[in-house]
Amino acid sequence: MKNLNLDYLNTFVAVVRLGSFSAAADELQLSQPAVSLQIRQLERSLGTTLIERVGRVAKATVAGEALLGHATGIDAAVRSAIADVSQHVAEGTGRVRIGTGATACIFLLPRIVATVRRRYPNLEITVTTGNTADITKAVEENVLDVGLVTMPVSGRSLDVTPVMNDEFVLIAPADMTLPARITAAALATRPAILYEQGGNTRRITDEWFARSGTKITPIMSMGSVEAIKAMVSAGLGCAILPALATGNLPSAGEVVIRSLSPRLHRRLASVVRRDKRLYAGLSDVLQCFRDLSNSTRQIR
């Protein structure tokens, strides 16, 4: 396979245009032997003579003329490529692929995406929702650039940074009789709507009940936090959800929010490959995630 060195091509064009190796050396700020060496190496790589001397003038051979006919187009293509790449670096016109859970997508990402888009209006941002395992796997495989997931999470190729504590709370219909302290034992006697098995929300909830030696049998399990909130609002039962998800609940007259006893939290973390180049846009998303570190959602 023949290789075309762009620097050597540029030297070749200068020699033919100026008709002189020495004049080309002066223009390119090279020594004349260096110019001669570049031309020889270009000829060797292409397997043909490109320049011949006619008297004291250096002229292109027939093969050289053929190469010269492409040189302008090659130079224009290279300049265009450099300009396109420079634009991406300067303006953040690339793409950032974010993965997170549905709750964080609804209640955290809009503010973060808006912040990043104000700085990089041409940046393409794609968001994928899923559970922690799926998002982490996609980041490891470079299908996603960054994830915001629930800890614990690990991976040798990943940089995991805790960014936010989110308290789990009870939401219940306003007319449900509740004790002063919302314990696992107290909830075991009330109709409960829980997140479906398999997700971190359910895992964290089940572990909280298990630590108190209490077993709970929900009247309903659902795969959508928003659907669970709608069921509670309709008076069908109570639920344990991340406080982050309570931002758009109906008025206090319909639903009440109470802390659990003992309190229960989950910790969100950003995940990115250790070898990921933090280009413009992606580094801003990561910084926005880190800025969440002082945001601990708690209900009194």
In short:
InterPro entries: HTH-type_LysR_regulators, LysR_HTH_N, LysR_subst-bd, WH-like_DNA-bd_sf, WH_DNA-bd_sf. Helix content is 42%, strand content 23%.
Written account of the structure:
The structure is a single chain. This protein has helices spanning 6-18, 21-28, 32-46, 62-91, 102-107, 109-119, 132-140, 184-187, 200-211, 225-233, 282-290, and strands at residues 51-54, 57-60, 95-100, 124-129, 146-150, 158-173, 193-195, 220-222, 239-242, 255-273. With 300 residues, the chain is of the alpha/beta class. The strands form 3 sheets. The protein has a 6-stranded mixed β-sheet with strand order 4-3-5-10-6-9, sandwiched between helices. The model is unreliable at 296-300 (pLDDT under 50).
Write the layout of secondary structure elements.
Elements: H1 6-18, H2 21-28, H3 32-46, E1 51-54, E2 57-60, H4 62-91, E3 95-100, H5 102-107, H6 109-119, E4 124-129, H7 132-140, E5 146-150, E6 158-173, H8 184-187, E7 193-195, H9 200-211, E8 220-222, H10 225-233, E9 239-242, E10 255-273, H11 282-290
Parallel strand pairs: 3-4, 3-5, 7-8
Antiparallel strand pairs: 1-2, 5-10, 6-9, 6-10
Helix pairs in contact: 1-2, 1-3, 2-3, 6-11
